[in-house]
Every structure is written in structure tokens, then in C-alpha cells.
Amino acid sequence: MSVASVISVLDDDPYVRAAINNLLKSRGYIVHTFASAEEFLRSTDSTDTSCVIADVQMPLMTGIDLLTQMRAQGSATPFILITGFPDESVRARALKAGATCFLGKPFAPTDMMQCLDRALAADDETRG
């Protein structure tokens, strides 16, 4: 029996956090939610997460900044970046920084699940 993956959801909007949390928990994932990148980094959960889903636009540290910092520290944790302001230049920056997926809000639950499946499959290959 496999252990459920731990997914960390970072968004400054509590409604978005709750919606993603509910979606992922309904699919059997263990979910940790955070209101900011700083809160995530202070948490012990930041080291055992299987995937990070982070908003691009957050106060103080953006999702792209967090991804860049974690990559600089040697973390290969997959990232899915989400934004209410999808823009091709932001998408390009996110993917260049190493995001597995980039979704504009609102997104369909099936799109999120496809991104998560891809991120976790890539993570399995990296660890494998």
C-alpha cells in the first residue's frame, strides 16, 4: 500500500486555499496549507512535501521567488504555480524557474489534477 503524497498549498486567499485543500483531500492526498511563502519556509512541512502549489502573487515573497530560492538551496520539489493574472511573460518566468505547471485562476479541477499527476510522476523519476 502506498503512502499518500504530501501537498503544500500556498495562497494568501483563504478561499482558494480551502478549495484546493478540499479537492486534494477528496483525492486522498495529505494537504498542508499556508497563507504565505514565509509561513511555509518556517514550517517543518517544507522539507517533506511531495509538491508545492503556490500562488504567483503573494505579499513579500512571490511563488516564483519561493521556487527560485528553493532551487538555489538544492530542492527538486515539484512546483505548480497558479495565478489570477495569467500572462505569457509570467508563465515564461515560472516555467524557466522550474515550475512543472502554470495555471490561471479559476482553473478546472481536472486541470489541477493533471498538473499534480505530472508533477508527482516527475518527482518519482527524480527520486527513482
From TrEMBL:
Domain Response regulatory: 6-120
Secretion signal span: none
InterPro entries: Bact_response_regulator, CheY-like_superfamily, Sig_transdc_resp-reg_receiver
GO BP annotations listed: phosphorelay signal transduction system
Residue numbers of 4-aspartylphosphate PTMs: 55
UniProt keyword list: Phosphoprotein
Pfam family, one: Response_reg
Keyword Phosphoprotein among UniProt keywords: yes
Listed name of the protein: Chemotaxis protein CheY
